[in-house]
Amino acid sequence: MKKIKTIGTNIFLLFLLQVMTFSSGAFALSQTDQRKEVIRQIALDNTGRDSSPVLAYEGVIVPDDYITSLLNSTLNDETGDFKLVQLVRILYFAENHSQAVLSAETEEILISTLSELDYWLTYNEDQYCHWSENHMIMWMSSAYLMGQLKGWQMGETLDERLNHYLDLKLQYGFSEFFSSVYQPYTLSGLLNLVDFAKDETIRAKAEAAATILLKDWLLAVNNKGSRFPAAGRNYSSRYTGTSYTMTTFITTGLGTVPERCNHIGGFLSTTSMDLEEIAASWTDQLNMTHSYGYSFGNKLSVHEGLNRQDRTAFQWSAGGYFHPDVADDTVYTVEYYNLENNKHFKVFQEIPNFPDSWANGFGKIGATFSRGSDIASHTVDIYKNGGIVLTSIDNYYGGYAGYQQWPWVATIDDIAVWTQSGEVTENWGDRPSTMQNTHLPWIRQDGNVALILYWPNAEIQMADTINQLDTDVALYWPEDRFDETTSDRRWLIGRKGESYIAVLCDQMNMKNGHYYSGANGGRQMWAVVLGNSQTHGSYSEFCEMISKSSYSEEFYWTFYEWRNVYKAKLNVDGKSLYKRW
Prior knowledge:
- There is one protein chain.
- The chain contains 21 helices and 17 strands.
- The strands form 3 sheets. It has an 8-stranded antiparallel sheet, with no helix packed on it. Strands 6-7-14-11-10-9 form a 6-stranded antiparallel sheet.
- By secondary structure, the chain is of the alpha+beta class.
- It has helices at 11-22, 31-45, 52-57, 64-76, 81-95, 104-115, 133-150, 158-172, 183-196, 200-219, 246-252, 265-268, 276-280, 299-302, 308-317, 327-337, 356-365, 367-370, 458-465, 533-536, 539-547, and strands at residues 285-293, 377-385, 388-393, 408-412, 415-421, 442-446, 449-454, 473-476, 484-488, 491-496, 499-504, 509-511, 514-517, 524-532, 550-558, 563-572, 575-580.
- The termini are far apart.
- It folds into 3 domains: 11-120 and 128-283; 296-371, no CATH class; 379-580.
């Protein structure tokens, strides 16, 4: 491919993309392939170690210091597999070129070092995480492809584990569902198999799994290219700014042209996988329920044929650590590999000689804190119309402790709005990375409207009483980014462009610059309504609709059931949502 001269700005690249799109004869590339070219040119113009796969793909020599940096990260970082998959991709592209893209000395050091690497859990492992969904496929695909490339023996159970992983995703979908953080890494492991696996069965399974992941990715993308989804694992940094991603741009062209090539850009821009069908699946009009997964109670049938320790790794990949149905396998596997010194399992240092036969019973006792990490199954309601998107996890462990899950998010053009339980900090990112919600809400969504109720389990209320957990609920509402905002009773209402949102707050108190409520030990009623100029007319008409809404909540003791009951009802925008909890 003839190289484009560096312009120093993305304006020329945008112009080029338009020319390539509308040219009738000069270019025969699909639109997604055209965008791949744009990203590759950006990588060539602004090189860095994440651009290394693109350099190798184009037959350009990859600087020694890039390889050294990637290799050092592979060896020394907990997330070393993030760089390992890049090195594997570079090696395969190097094989495809007659001219050298790596210096002989660097390639020799690289191959020698990778030959000594452990690609799966070993006794006394205290550095790497091999078992979360994204890590599993990066480690396993790298092991498979290095074995294929160099004839190395990569473990007796590798083929079984790899096929099981792919079959699991094809049947049940992804556990780290809609994760803005981790799904691009999962995708990179899959794309290496798509592009380099010689076994057609493995390659086809990987492509089918990648297709599922990418189509899922696009479900939450609005017509601006913003993507702020409810998710199985995520972090606040993916919601507090704008969210124009490389994955969205290459598949749809929406958002902005990236300024640099990032990790997934080096994979998507160089993959042989045809992305046109995936791009065609995107729509800005959607009202659906997305549901699949499996129960930990079916672990023996779901993971049939695997040895116990490998089965445990798959359970961990779906958040099954101390869940009552799988806690015995966790205790067994931690002992099998002697993982007490691994930071993820240091709790076992406090309970030596703990029989695994007791674990499930103790898991039930502590279920309030163990069940909420389960991401093996999910049901997500998705509503999308133009620039507005509302996603929420339906019927998901309301009242239990949450971890990295994002229970609901509203998108208004390029703004995300959501609630979160726990300590209200000025900087949203200061919350603990492992426990993003001290208690999860119950949510019922009907299209553009959702009723969101919080009522923490008794164990969490007790922990709040003794100052070990905070049950406050706060709203992320970046008022300065809206074009205009107003309030109506307990409703906060905002407009960005032609997109509108209204949030019903439990209380309109402020702490550290955020709307929050510390009422009732965390038992609170919230709600959200979205609209735009197409669905509701003008912003004033949307506000008028909100002014006509009604809502109520009750909390009382019932002698007949011998328990407290929490009831809430919302009537708004022609919808009536009700919950008796």
